[in-house]
Amino acid sequence: MFVSLGSAKADTAKGSSNFMRRKIARTVTGVAIVAGLVAACGSEGENGAAGTSGANGTASSAAAASSSGAGAPASSGAGTGDAGQAGGEAAQKVTAAIQQALQQSPITFTTESAELTEKSKTALGEIAKAMQGNDVKITVATHAGYPDAEKSKALSEKRAEAITAALEAAGVAKDRVKTEATGNEKAQGDQALDTQITVAQ
Fold this sequence. Notes:
Residues 96-201 form the OmpA-like domain. The chain has 201 residues and is mainly α.
């Protein structure tokens, strides 16, 4: 009887021990699972945050590069275009003024003379006004119709100088007036008395 009771106690003790082991094992396993989940979630959160930050950072960098990279050439390209357009408009304005002035009063000289008439000076004054506020240059072609080439060349040069001086007196810098004193090479007779003024190319 004593032996039976001892066996029963031993069995009970073993059962309790096994039960405790199983409980501890479950607890440890549960803790391990929870720890694993927490670690996994933390890792995903970090990766997600890093990914988001990285994506946003890349997107921001790309946007910055796009705005700075695309903006500079665009504005540079826009500045160049505006300057070109302004220059073209100024040239058209001067060309129109030249045509109008020469229609109203052609720049002509009397035979064997380099003297400008008052009408010619007025016409040159109108051209000079159109040349204010821009850097448009003009070409002045003068002639002289003598049979003697040297004499014609000398007179056409004096005529060019007279026109340049009149424009300079009206406020046009001398270096903005290109002269072509052709003598008798391009015009003969009465045609040699006329002067051509054009916007320089």
